[in-house]
Amino acid sequence: MAVLKRNSKKLQVDPARREPAQALRAELEGSMGKQGPLLERTLADG
Question: What is the pTM (predicted TM-score) of this model?
Answer without folding.
Answer: 0.48
